[in-house]
Amino acid sequence: MVSTPIERKWQMVVDVDRCTGCQACVVACQAENNVPLNSESHYKQMRAFEWIRVERYWEGEFPNVKARFLPFLCFHCNNAPCEPVCPVFATYHNNEGLNVQIYNRCVGTRFCQNNCPYNARFFNFWEPVWPESLRNALNPDVTVRGRGIMEKCTFCIQRIRRAELDAKRRGTEKDAVELNVQPACAQACPTSALVFGDIKAPDSRLKAFVENKRHFRVREELGTEPNVIYLSKVDPEAKEVAGHA
User: Fold this and answer.
1) CB 40, CB 85: distance < 8 Å
2) Which helix (H) or strand (E) holds 10?
3) What kind and span of H or E run contains 89?
């Protein structure tokens, strides 16, 4: 018996106007996905990594300078330039709009990292080591990746799968999955700047954001068709939407 393909398209909306740059999303992602700790030596060698980062930039001229923040993560592009260059098919696009990374296939060529225009993929240079006091805090639902492979944001796919199983047990698979799944970053954001959902759901919470006049995609001219959508910063003094980053 052939199963019916899942008709979903997971996307995330980032409201830059709500982001305060607190980096709660970064800490939550690190804890949820067993991301190795970044030491000072790793940072100085430019080999520190995180699956989501908050870019800070400045707008205006002194003394009217304003800080802007832009959360950056894997954009799960529909036309991802990282996928066709992988020699072992460790990364591909599934039927739910996710750019999937198969860790035990990856041989660490870093072709995908070189082909990503958003610098959203990171190479694991070292075997991860956690202090004894933190080892019991590792998430058992997520693989602890060894050195020599590429890592990136997965939209917390383990949470998606858990929500699907829970919905299936309750017999509400079609309409309840989106309401019961949130990536760690979106769940931890104190200002609800990150909104995650299934754009194909009948009453998707994303539709109002996608239709907002402030929406834009980073470097959309590249034709990568990202599944992460941003809402521009609103400057109340100028009474207009701030320029796109």
Assistant:
1) no
2) strand 10-15
3) none
Provide the 3-class DSSP secondary structure of residue 206: coil
Unique residue bearing structure tokens 């072992």: 88
Element (DSSP H or E) covering residue 184: helix 184-188
44, two tokens: 């100085």
| Torsion from C-alpha of 76, 78, 82, 87, nearest 10 degrees | 120
Side chain identity at 92, as an amino acid letter? Y
Q: Can you tell me whether residue 134 is helix, strand or coil?
A: helix
Nearest residue to 218 via CA among 234, 229, 204, 233: 229
Confidence at residue 46, expressed as pLDDT on a 0 to 100 scale: 81
- Which tens digit of pLDDT belongs to each residue from 22-71? 999 999 999 999 998 888 888 888 888 889 999 988 888 888 888 889 99
Half-sphere exposure of 223 (CA within 13 A, CB side): 1
Residue 62 to residue 24: CA distance in whole angstroms: 29
Residue 155 corresponds to which amino acid?
Answer: F
Which domains are present in the chain? 10-241 (3.30.70.20)
Rounded to 10 degrees, the C-alpha dihedral 204/208/211/214 comes to -130
- What's this model's pTM, rounded to 2 decimal places? 0.86
Task: State the Rg of the chain over Cα.
Answer: 19
Q: For residue 43, give the H/E element and its range.
A: helix 40-44
Q: Are 48 and 38 a contacting pair, CB within 8 Å?
A: yes
